[in-house]
UniProtKB/TrEMBL annotation:
Pfam families (alphabetical): HMA
Keyword set, alphabetical order: Metal-binding
GO molecular function: metal ion binding
Originating organism: Morella rubra
Manganese keyword on record: no
Stated name of the protein: Copper transport protein CCH
Amino acid sequence: MGNVVELKVGLHCSECIKKIFKAIKKLEDIETYNADMELNKVTVTGNVTTEEVIRVLQKIGKTANTWEGDETCC
């Protein structure tokens, strides 16, 4: 089992998701990947780092941030 990378990415339409999946597929050692348009969340599982996934998404013009540090509190 590899790392699980969860990122916040702006997912506006199905074309955005297609571009993201195409870019992610180019990474080596990917086991699974998923996009949740409702949560604007991309999840990648495999032998990859958060930085690698962010870099690939930035190459296609997407801004990606980690979920950590995004605490919404009262």
